[in-house]
Amino acid sequence: MGSGEDTSRKAVVLLSGGLDSTTVAAWLAREGWKIHALSVDYGQRHAVELSAARRLAARLGVAEHLVLPLDLRGIGGSALTADRPVPKEADPLAPVAAGIPDTYVPARNTILLALALALAEARGAGAIGIGVNALDYSGYPDCRPEFVAAFAELARLATREGVEGRPVRILAPLQHLRKAEILTLARRLGVPVAETVSCYDPDPGGGACGGCDACRLRARAERELAAPVEVAVDAGGSGPRAEARLSGRPVGWAALRADPAGDWRLEILEVAPEARDLGAAPRLLRALQRFAGTGSIRVAAAAAEPEVLRSCGFRPAGRGWRWQGPPPAALPLDG
Ligand code: ZN
């Protein structure tokens, strides 16, 4: 685009019609970006997503909403694009299993970001917004921060804008947020959450199935936000200590100690049975992460459940787990 054009406040946003992508679009709009929404009709079994995307784009007042047909059913290889069942659990609050599930669409985010990059260059947009999330998610490899960073490098190398020193930025503000944090952000931004469609297998009217990974992640987040668990941190003498209270009663504790290597070490993480399904454990860890700031926290393998650690951004390291700060701002709005 002409070098005199201001590209800094135009953004292409990949809008699927789900909660995450709509929240990214609403956040960027709130930050003053002019939004060019891009939805791809790739033959997804949940076509009601696209109707939701159209409605939400109109609600957000985007400058443009492009729905691009690109049928990926010829490639198949996923429960979303082939005649294969979407995996479901009977218990609507069952955790999401580790590993890459059958709803993974081969190379989907690579394809979608390539299309967004082309649109960004054509429209002279300086950024691409995408709602990927690497904490409460289905384990798709193309949702990880490494993937987003690698694509940003590709965008720098692949385009005229990049070669001329104005690479298109990839904005993925939700990637380090827990689902409950995303839902909080969406509500604060005024996103019509009930109109978003995140379910992998909704009925023709858009009703959620209740059993797929996406439905269960949202149900767990909603339950966590509805529970009156309060978490407070006390700096303490030898390390910070966090306490969770449910209706005023203590129901969980977590504490850090400094170790000789300069890391923090998780000394205790205990949650009473009645608070276990209310997000108390990840919220205690989040509070300690904020205290640790740019430091790092080590956790012995047996000290906490892998699911809880993963959902707070910890990664396997040696015989246990490790997290490296800084923590995400509680919400992009705050940071
Ligand atoms: Zn579902």
Output the keywords.
five-stranded parallel sheet; Aminopeptidase; alpha/beta; Rossmann fold; 335 residues; 2 domains; 20% strand; seven-stranded mixed sheet; globular; binds zinc ion; 12 strands
Describe the 3D structure.
The protein has 335 residues and is α/β, with parallel strands linked by helices. The chain contains nine helices and twelve strands. It has a seven-stranded mixed β-sheet, covered by helices on one side. Strands 3-2-1-4-5 form a five-stranded parallel β-sheet, with helices on both faces. α1 packs parallel to α2 and α6 packs across α7. The longest helix has 16 residues. The site of zinc ion has 9 residues, from α7.
Q: Which overall shape is indicated by the principal axes computed on the Cα atoms?
A: globular
CATH topology of the largest domain: Rossmann fold
Number of helices: 9
Ligand catalogue = zinc ion
Specify the CATH architecture of the largest domain.
Answer: 3-Layer(aba) Sandwich
Which structural class matches the secondary elements? alpha/beta
Rounded radius of gyration (Å): 21 Å
Largest sheet properties: 7 strands, mixed
Number of β-strand runs: 12
Strand residue content: 15-25%
What's the SSE blueprint?
Layout (H helix, E strand, L loop, with lengths): L9 E5 L4 H12 L3 E8 L6 H13 L3 E6 L38 H16 L3 E3 L15 H14 L1 H4 L5 E3 L7 H10 L24 H14 L2 E6 L6 E6 L2 E10 L5 E8 L8 H13 L3 E4 L6 H6 L3 E3 L2 E5 L11
Parallel strand pairs: 1-2, 1-4, 2-3, 4-5, 9-10
Antiparallel strand pairs: 6-7, 7-8, 8-9, 10-12, 11-12
Helix pairs in contact: 1-2, 1-6, 6-7
This protein binds zinc ion.
